[in-house]
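idk why but the lab printer keeps eating my pages so im just putting this in chat instead. protein + serine:
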Amino acid sequence: MTHQEIREKFRKFMGSKGHKWVASSSLLPSDPSVLFTTAGMQQFKQYYTDPSSAPAANVASIQKCMRTSDIDEVGDESHLTFFEMLGNFSFNGYWKREATQYAHEFIIKEMGLKIDHVSIFGGEGDIPADEESEKIWREIAPEIVIKKFGRADNFWGPTGNEGPCGPTTEIYVNGIEVWNLVFNQCYKHPDGRLEALESPGVDTGMGLERLAMAVQKKENVFGTDLFEPLIQMLPQDNISKKVHRIIADHARAAAFIISDGVTPSNKDKGYVLRRLIRRIIVQCHLNGIEIEAMNDIFAKIVELYSQYYPELDISKIKSIFAVENEKFQKTFKNGLKELEKMGSVDNASAFKLYESFGLPFDVIQEVGGSKASSLTRNGFEEERKRHQEISRAGVEKKFGGHGMKEGDLTAANKEELWKKTRLHTATHIIVAALERVLGQKLPQAGSDIMAERLRFDFTFPRKVTLEELKKAENIANDIVAKDLPVICEEMDLQVALDSGASAFFKLKYPPRVKVYSIGESGAYFSRELCGGPHVSRTGQVGHITITKEESVSGGNRRIRAVVN
Ligand code: SER
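predcted complex ->
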């Protein structure tokens, strides 16, 4: 049975039991307390407390999901970052009996599988055992072995720091859990308190990859038709299964989250994407796999899935991967050399390698081998936090907690300074973008940055059209998306001017100046004489919107813009 047939059977089966089919939601959830969509129920969360707002009492879906806590484990037989979940849900509709019956019937009759055993909630603390589920299983399948566990195993949820939750019953086939049936009968408040839900709800989730593995009688998920076609495209000789799996898993995940709108950065979702892409790049390098092979893998992924996920965008996937590759190729090889030279690697030196060369933690651990044996993910993350605190404390100390001045900017506090710093870099980006659109250097005539907006004047003989502004804005946001480095160098004024750096023609400059460049050396997007401060990468600027263009005195034009 192919994965296509499994999907179809599930859809038909749930339809025949009165479920309305709902499309998968984005991997980027509206629930801000979670980074990615991790379960099918996430898009339905509010219906458990407000069933009347649901599109139907009973719904079913196949949901794309991302779980990133085990990213370093990918490469063994079972861990995945991206996966799909088949699920049926009820909001004050049916309850434990129907949910259990449907699951049993689907596994036995539709999938032709045998159930090894099921587990149920055996009670813990104040929460009583789920006797109802035990009774239902005894009636439906008297021969079945029922195992009982506590809260860690058989009580689910909530996603985020509050929400519906309740006891579960899990179905095991060939030794692995394939289906998790959650009976949402409680609501967990942020303080941990459990309250009974007014109306009960059902939330079930069955991993497509695991189900396919059982149905297709494979030893692990990587043998199924969801992975095999991808792995087959990679060179087979002298390359471990682990490497195949990492590349296949990370390529799927990257393709899906890029298509949902994530770009690589050093924060949150962007950081996850960056880790995935960089791990692919390093694995390709270490195993002599041509990086171009990834384009074919991405194309295959889109071919496999586009029927179900039309949002998959091959050109976006390829271009974001190419940009990150371009950026990373330059530095990581130096990082690997540096790592080779080092005697032993502890968490602090690993973090330095990450900061200076972009080497991901797991790569340092893997390539470092025995000399990196003291590394831990937690220790590394601690270093990261410590480092962030030091830079923050540095700003505070410098400005004594009162009004602060740094370079060309003054601000009331460090939040404001940061906002103005972002706007300051945005000013450089917009000027350079406009110069490209208008096809000439723009003599700058003044700049004024407030916390809520930037403003700058330049000499130009006519109105800049809306279309030109839009083009410039697009270029500017492209530069933000590329997360280019912003580099500061000190040099002699004449050297700076000779190197093509822009300057305010009215200003008198000292003999030594600071030059801020955006982009890689040799291919600068912008290069200006400036007192700073600026962000260190363009991704930190955020989305740029040009809000106004007008004429001001002296034959100058004035632009205002905001960042979000
Ligand atoms: N929410 C449960 C899970 O993710 C069942 O769908 O396992």
